[in-house]
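== Sequence entry ==
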Amino acid sequence: MRFSAFVFMILLVGCGIEPSEPSVRHFSVSDRPDPAHNSRNSLDYWGVYQGTVPCADCEGIEMTLVLHENDTYERFLKYLGKGDSQLIEQRGSFEWDDAGGAITLEERHGSTKYKVGETSLLQLDTEGEIITGDLANMYILEKK
């Protein structure tokens, strides 16, 4: 009797509760950005940005773009490799896109769009898309 009770206890312990697996949490990533966190309200976007962007008929355009908190800008352009390298000054206002991640500089002859990053502005094409190709990395203005 003792032996059968002992065997019963061994079987009970051996077939007892299985150790639980660690709990795993699954998170989903939304395609839509959280409207509470975007470049407009999460970053100190205002300030001075500089870079040299490609030019069709010169060595490049040295650009300084100053963004102000009141949604205005100042842009200074210098065409490199031209005989008269005058500094061109432009001033105006800019608008944010609905998602708060890109701005459009309103100009007399069209507009220029930029994606606003942590420490840079990325110039976009006329459709608001990221420029691709061999010169893509030359369309970045770094914050100073």
About this structure: Strands lie at 47-53, 60-67, 72-80, 87-96, 102-107, 110-116, 120-123, 140-143. The mean pLDDT is 82. Residues 36 and 42 are 8 Å apart (CA to CA). Residues 44-143 form a domain with the Lipocalin fold (CATH 2.40.128.640).
